[in-house]
Amino acid sequence: MELRSQTGPVFLTYRDSARINAVVQEIIRSEPYFSFTARDGVEHKLWKAGSRSEELSRCFAADVPCFYIADGHHRAASASHAAARCR
């Protein structure tokens, strides 16, 4: 089976934005989509943006000129090279 996609995780971060933070704070007041504690004791939670996703996208477009790859830069670079070859 061939996915033709990069499935490895890439951790992105960006400079602080009060507008994004406000939307995210509202989102995380709801029940998480999933929540579990791993064997090492670390708690993991994921929320869906749901109806706030368009607003969140607009905030990112307005407030975040670039992302920083905090981990996974090699995976991101190899995915870019693979995409170029697949074209």
Topology:
Elements: E1 11-13, H1 18-27, E2 34-37, E3 43-46, H2 53-63, E4 68-71, H3 73-86
Antiparallel strand pairs: 1-4, 2-3
Helix pairs in contact: 1-2
How many strand elements?
A: 4
The parts where pLDDT drops under 50 for at least 5 residues are none
Strands in their spatial order, largest beta sheet: 1-4
* Secondary structure: helix percent: 40-55%
Describe the main β-sheet briefly: 2 strands, antiparallel
Order of helices and strands: EHEEHEH
| Separation, N- and C-terminal Cα atoms | 19 Å
Q: What's the average pLDDT?
A: 89
Report on the architecture of this protein:
By secondary structure, this protein is an alpha+beta fold. It is built from three helices and four strands; from the N terminus they run βαββαβα. It has helices spanning 18-27, 53-63, 73-86; strands at 11-13, 34-37, 43-46, 68-71. The strands form two sheets. It has a two-stranded antiparallel ribbon with strand order 1-4. It has a two-stranded antiparallel sheet with strand order 2-3. The longest helix has 14 residues, at 73-86. The model has no long low-confidence stretch (mean pLDDT 89).
